[in-house]
Amino acid sequence: MHALFAAFVSVCVSFSALAQGGPAAAPMIHPEKLKQIAPSVWIIPDESRPMVPNVGFVVGQTGVLVVDTGMGDMNGAIVAGVARKLAPDLRVYIVTTHFHPEHDLGANGFPRGARMIDGSTMLRATTQEQDIAEFGLSLAKTFSERSPAAALLLKDAKYRDADIEFENDRTLDLGGVRAYIFAAGPNHTRGDTAVWVETEQVLFAGDIVMKPQPALASPYSTIGHWLSTLDSLAQLRPRTIVPSHGPTGGVELIEGYKTYFNELQRRAAAEKKAGKSEDEAVTAVTAAMAERYPDKNRLAGAVRAAYAEAP
Ligand SMILES: [Zn+2]
């Protein structure tokens, strides 16, 4: 604990130095932004800052579930502190929407003691374990190159081992409120994991449903599966969707992604049918859609997937 505190202080000092040195704000979780969005659900919004996730808390009478950790142990310790404040003396569970650094690599900042008060329990879907085994810290390396602050946060980062691994889903009884945690990939990643709080109709959707354009970030990602996932999520009839990035919303977020993917599929299939190459399809579909969907990298990745999947 003393070592952790020393690390915390040294990182704080480094960050104030960084803050003076440049305009790029460090990708820190801002605990003062914590807000309640349903009787048992709180979030710390990301304010759409890069390398920062929306962090969720589902608070029952016996336990609190944290959804996504922030990037690096220091952010994890901040999030753990908020969980402890929301739920003093309760068991702390952690689940991450996928294995990317800002969602998962803060888990080691949570306390690890054996007793309930100073311990925490991490859950992972088997598919997320597979992502970690196959891709490891490759994205953490990329993120580290983006800014000195990111590099500092990710220095010596490693994945925390799961205390509970589940195949498809797991229901957590938090005392008066239950969280249904389920593997939903491959969409953004193979290990995409969502959380459904049925009593309050809140869905933590990870990167599966957001306002920003979707990223097919894994070689296992397919638009076909992603569309079927969107249909399943729509059937839950969520009142509130908390994506892992960007503003919270309702079912219109699901509709937005369906519209995007349907148009991509239709256009890419038409190009393929007309005998165009994949690169030609990327050029043509991007030209048709980029005005409405400005992230051309994500657009190109999605066109390539749609082209490969088209008959
Ligand atoms: Zn991601």
In short:
The protein is α/β, with parallel strands linked by helices and 311 residues long. The protein has 10 helices and 12 strands. It is globular.
Written account of the structure:
The chain has 2 domains: 2-250, Ribonuclease Z/Hydroxyacylglutathione hydrolase-like (Metallo-beta-lactamase, Chain A), CATH 3.60.15.10; 252-311. The protein contains 10 helices and 12 strands. It has helices at 2-21, 73-86, 101-104, 126-135, 138-144, 148-154, 223-235, 252-273, 278-289, 296-309, and strands at 35-38, 41-44, 55-59, 63-67, 91-95, 121-125, 164-166, 169-173, 178-183, 193-197, 202-206, 240-243. It has a 7-stranded mixed sheet with strand order 1-2-3-4-5-6-7. Strand 10 (193-197) and strand 11 form a beta hairpin. Helix 7 (223-235) runs antiparallel to helix 8 and helix 9 (278-289) packs across helix 10 (296-309). The termini are far apart. It binds zinc ion.
Count of helix runs: 10
The CATH topology of the largest domain is what? Metallo-beta-lactamase, Chain A
Listed once per kind, the bound small molecules are: zinc ion
Query: Taking Cα atoms only, what radius of gyration do you get, to the nearest Å?
Result: 20 Å
Strand content: 15-25%
Question: How many discrete domains?
Answer: 2
How would the blueprint of this fold be written?
Layout: H1 2-21, E1 35-38, E2 41-44, E3 55-59, E4 63-67, H2 73-86, E5 91-95, H3 101-104, E6 121-125, H4 126-135, H5 138-144, H6 148-154, E7 164-166, E8 169-173, E9 178-183, E10 193-197, E11 202-206, H7 223-235, E12 240-243, H8 252-273, H9 278-289, H10 296-309
Parallel strand pairs: 4-5, 5-6, 6-7, 11-12
Antiparallel strand pairs: 1-2, 2-3, 3-4, 8-9, 9-10, 10-11
Helix pairs in contact: 1-6, 5-6, 7-8, 8-9, 8-10, 9-10
Bound molecules: zinc ion.
